[in-house]
Amino acid sequence: MKKISLSGIKPTGTPHLGNYLGMIRPALELAKDYQAFYFIADAHALNQVGDGGELRRMTFETAATLLALGLNPEEVTFFRQSDIPEVFELAVILAASTAKGLLNRAHAYKAAVDANLTSGRDPDAGVNMGLFTYPVLMAADILLFGSHVVPVGEDQRQHVEIAADIAQAFNRAYGEVLVVPEAVIREEVAGIPGTDGRKMSKSYGNVIPIFSPPDQLHARIMGIVTDSRPPEEPKNPDQDNLFGIYKHFATREETEAMRRKYLRGGFGYGEVKQALYEVLERAFAAARTRYEGYLLDRPLLDRVLFAGAEKARASCAPLMNKVREAVGFRHGEATHLPSPAG
Fold first, then answer.
1. Is the pLDDT of residue 342 over 50?
2. Domain range spanning residue 277?
3. Are 145 and 257 part of one and the same domain?
4. What's this model's pTM, rounded to 2 decimal places?
């Protein structure tokens, strides 16, 4: 039996190059060697998206993105988180084995508290329970399918570590029921630069969307911040925003040639920006066409996600039976509840 990998992506905006390099591409590659599960984390998105229509739109965008980039629902299990009631049942069960102190240390919650304290507000001002218990729900996502590995960006490492802590606490109480997961992080793509030189992030507004139309893609790239060194001066490619993106999409030969050009000098950044535009168009033009086609067929996307949910629920049923029995609930294979008289 192959080990299990699980990957989730939150539908809170159009996926960008940072998402692709940090999570999507490594997750798709894991499907070669693992039994792979992929899900759209729409329940997690409730903390940020307060409009139902908007959440549905972004969920379909995310589904179309993964399919267009090569996810094959016939070979993997691809589903929408909200279609799996067992996730939420397990989250409630795991909450009883989770120390509050562990959640107090979660980065997102600590950041919100620190921001409040800095501004002189109550520490928990604006903090809802969805944010506070986010790591428990994520642990349920991971543990429900017996995941061995979880590919994430560096900013999500702690959530996988918390899931491992929760699994170990549950197993100490009830026996070896849950698999303890590990994070898989590609260090070479950590902190891919955005258009302003900071880490590419939706919160900074410095992203390059994967499927930008050619004219918008070109404009984004031409707007990437560079230094003011003159063309004739040699430059360090490893300290340059453009090269920091280019090297992930160019061939090895193209990357080495560009590196030599930086070290030699005698070129302007506009030339590199044009080269970056061309390699990104080469990488994503065909996928962009597929993406646009999927977005025009929401019923198809729904069918794919519902079929994936059926596979996912069948896969997690044995584990949920073990969890229910371990904690003293009814046996999960019962097909009906007893009548009131019985």
1. no
2. 211-293
3. no
4. 0.87
